[in-house]
Amino acid sequence: MAETIFDESTLGTVNNQITFNQDGPIYYRLRSRIPQRRQVREFDIPLQENTGVSDFRTFIGKTMFVLEGTMYPDDEDYFAEGRYALKSLSSPQISQDDADSDQGYVPYKWTDNTAKQIFVKVLYVDLPESSRGGIKQPFRLWCKLKYPVVFSQTLESTTLGQSTSTTTGGSYLPFVLPVVLGSTTYSSNGSISNLGKIGTYPNITIYGPINQPRITNSTTGEYLEFNVNLTSTSDVLRITYDQDSLTAELNGNSVINKQTSGSTYFKLISGINNLTLSGSTISSGAYATVSANSAWPLS
Q1: Is residue 170 domain-shared with residue 134, that is, in the same domain?
Q2: Most CB atoms closer than 10 Å: which of 2, 25, 85, 138?
Q3: Cα dihedral sign for 254, 256, 258, 264?
């Protein structure tokens, strides 16, 4: 068996995964384990399953991420097994839904100083079967790329718990204070690092009791605030978003319309991000968790 020339990388989930550049009975060698910008292309590729003019489908207008390699099986039985494994990556039973949906993405993982990954959906496996090349066959995996962004495999996280408190006085003032007179408010500080080179989207979870919760990224001055009231420790506000999806739910109910003016669904910039949890009133049991994967541009 030929020696590996690149470090190992994997594609798929635990139940349907292929390892590239690994010696064994079925050996897949990729040209490069580290995704390159040249692998992102625009293609119009007719599928081979159907014939004729009016009954074929193409990838017109789709941005494809192409994984190219060669399969080196030991014999014809392993060739059949390896071909089945490659074809299974694009199986409708595994990928689910259709090519245009946001379902069915799987990670392509490798290690380059740190463990990294991108998310792709294999739409088509190009594996020519010709006696000219014997059982040694090149292959291409045409993948839909979810985002042209490389993420860390390790999730960075921080917890914003009670750290400081302020008690307002009881004097009459000719203007409205942002908190009730005589109440005690708390602010919670923490930091999270984005080890990458570009901004990344955080996942935010806030636990009560807290009224009008606000997460502020002190490093950039941006904040995200909702005009809702988490009255007890059992109340939970979950906020997840990226470039094309957004969810903000209080105890499972959408509160997207409760976002306050001036709020921003901010990214965590490269480096250290100092975060603060605050609110119009906060009890000592309130806290928040913020997590994110570091992000790099597709080089």
Answers
A1: no
A2: 85
A3: positive
> For 157-207, what is each residue's pLDDT tens digit?
999 985 444 444 444 445 544 444 444 555 689 999 999 999 999 999 999
Contact assessment for residue 10 and residue 109, using Cβ atoms and an 8 Å cutoff: yes
How far is the C-alpha of 120 from the C-alpha of 225, rounded, in Å?
A: 33
Give the other-Cβ count within 10 Å of 4's Cβ: 14
CA distances 265 to 214, 217, 222, 243, Å, are 12, 11, 8, 10
Are 91 and 177 in a shared domain? no
Question: Rounded distance, CA 269 to CA 199, Å?
Answer: 4
Co-location of 254 and 130 in the same domain:
no
Residue 265's CATH number: 2.60.120
Residue 64's domain comprises 9-146
Residues 285, 162: one domain?
A: yes
Q: Using H for helix, E for strand and C for coil, what is the string for the chain?
A: CCCCCCCCEEEEECCEEEEECCCCCCCEEECCCCCCHHHEEEECCCCCCCCCCCCCCCCCCEEEEEEEEEECCCCHHHHHHHHHHHHHCCCHHHHCCCCCCCCCCEEEEEEECEEEEEEEEEEEEECCCCCCCCCCEEEEEEEEECCCEEEEEEEEEEEECCCEEEECCCCCCCCCCCCCCCCEEEEEEEEEEECCCECECCEEEEECCEECCEEEECCCCEEEEECCEECCCCCEEEEEECCCCEEEEECCEECHHHECCCCCCCCECCEEEEEEEECCEECCCCEEEEEEEEEEECC
